[in-house]
Amino acid sequence: MRGRGVGRIALLVMAAVAFGALESLVKGNGAGVRDGIGNLSAPWVIVPLLAGAAGSRGSMLLGAVVGLLTSLAALVGFYVTNAFVLDLGPHSTLHEIGLTLNAGNAWFKAGAMSGPAMGALGAWAARRGGFVVAWSVVALVVFEPLVVYLTYLASHGRFAAGDGQWNGVYAAEAALGALAAVALWGTRPMKRD
Fold first, then answer.
1. Residues 6+ apart with CB under 8 A from 173
2. Contact at 8 Å (CB) between 67 and 115?
C-alpha cells in the first residue's frame, strides 16, 4: 500500500473517531429523542460501508480491513467520549475511560463482525459506482426501522422498542430514508445506447 493509501485510511479512521465522539455527545446521558438518535444502528454500519468505498480502491479485502478499523475507531471515539459525558462517580479519568470501554465490550465484538462485512460491501458497491454506494446507504436507513420492528415483535410479541420512547425516532428515520430514496431515484443515471 502506498503512502497516499495509508494517509487516506488514517483520515478515514480519524473521521470515524470523530463520528463516535459526536454520537456520544448527541446521545448524552438521558432518555428520549437524543437517546433514540444515539441508539440508531444504521449510522454505525454506514461508517464502515463508506470507509470501505472510499479507502479500498475496489478491493473487497482492503475494504474489509478499512471497515474493521473504522468500525472499531468509531466505537473507541464513542466510549472514550462517554467517560466525559456520563456521570460515573468519583474516579480518575483513566479509570472512567476503562469503565466505558469495558461497558462497550459487546459492541466492540459486534463491530468486529459488522465492520469488515460493511467495508467489503462498500468496496463492492464502489466498484459499481457512486450510485450503488448511495443506494446502499439509503437502504440501511430505510430498512433499519423495519428490522428493529420485526426483531422486537419476534422477541416481545408487540412493538414498543425502548418502551415506545424511540418510535418517533424510527419513524423519522424511515421518512428520511424514503425521502432520500425518492431524491436518489430522481437522479438515477441514464442508460447509454
1. 40, 42, 141, 144, 145
2. yes
User: Which amino acid, one-letter code, is at 29?
Assistant: N
124 or 37, higher pLDDT: 124
| DSSP 3-state of 118 | helix
CA of residue 98 relative to chain centroid, distance: 23
Q: Is 52 left (phi over 0), alpha (psi -120 to 50) or beta?
A: alpha
CA atoms within 13 A on the CB side of 103: 14
Alpha helices in the chain (DSSP H): 3-27, 33-38, 42-55, 60-85, 93-103, 105-128, 130-156, 167-186
pLDDT tens digits along 101-115: 777 778 888 889 999
Q: Which residue type is seen at 26?
A: V
- How many other CB atoms are there within 10 angstroms of residue 19's CB atom? 20
